[in-house]
Amino acid sequence: MQHLNYKxxxxxxxxxxxxxxxxxxxxxxxxxxxxxxxxxTLKKITVTYEIHPAGKITPKxxxxxxxxxxxxxxxxxxxxxxxxxxxxxxxxxxxxxxSPLIRHEKESIRINSGQNTSLYLGxxxxxxxxxxxxxxxxxxxxxxxxxxxxxxxTHPNPDxxxxxxxxxxxxxxxxxxxxxxxxxWLKITHKFTSEEVDTLLASTSLSAxxxxxxxxxxxxxxxxxxxxxxxALTISLTPTYQLKIIWLSESLTNVRLNVxxxxxxSDIYTRVHPHTYAALIQAAISTGLTEVQxxxxxxxxxxSVLHRIGLGLDVKVIKNNAESISLHRNQAEYANYxxxxxxxxxxxxxxxxxxxxxxxxxxxxxxxxxxxxxxxxSDQNAPTYNQGISANxxxxxxxxxxxxxxxxxxxxxxxxxTTK
Length: 420
Hints:
Distance between the termini: 55 Å
Structural class: alpha+beta
Largest sheet: 9 strands, mixed
Helix content: 10-25%
Number of strands: 23
Radius of gyration: 25 Å
């Protein structure tokens, strides 16, 4: 309670930094001269979120779950009292540090005592998708630090795990912890509907068969016979030409390990951005491929943030009528990295497929494969050779990765994060 005279007064915390000039409160008392009133004031509290990726695991876990992970470029939007702050209304921000992930100044949120704050994360941070705010805390008298740790395995209580648990008060701060699990990732990753996809692709230059094929994925119209694969979709183009898209069983490995309940066709494949499927299918049709095998799409607990928010899709094998071509390169080949040992015809087929993908700049932001790397398809630079030197180059010795364009998530027109 502040005892103030009749003029407008600013009340400022004693420990305010010079960088943050925001007063703890602004109050207006009565206009009667020489009078005093008691005015209740609210203390300003700083809430800091830190998100730690699940890396640094044992060799046994590393073999089971995959290598150490990063969460740089994770989109987020901040809520106060269940309302998104104005700076995030149109588009989310993207955190730029690896661990702790949210560390730069604007993620330390200043709220009044008694207010609450929460986050929209991943694709759920995108304007229009926001459904599941997570990690809500209510400010008391102390500053708050919320540490969120990614957690491997199946933990089928996303609503409970995403609620911070008080741990201690130390040096005038209240400390909380919470988890980020596969089931939480599933909850906060946007699931596309076939109607949404039809609207999204209506203005593109895709062929009618490509549009229909993509729509079929989100409508669940897969082939009844998967031949031992996770799923398949046959696209009949002419009486003599069919293209088959195959989701290999390994595309669900990380999901099986980290999501407690799901249906692959309705819950997993529909969390991949339609732009990736559209570009791949159109490129395959344009180059006359008869089969494309997919090895990974949406996955919650492995590799970069791009797969976790549904913007990444990996291709392992492409086929034409004559040959099955594995997108895999042996390390020994990098001594002469400008050429492969696949043979002229196979090498030409891969080049044609990549070139067809590069034509879909409105849909595709990145293409990485064992021979070529294109970090930004929208710039004027040609793809560089994969020399097998950088970590990102080595990650793509065994597959082709495609990143979707999504301007609403900030993934277009500038240099993005590396992927796996």
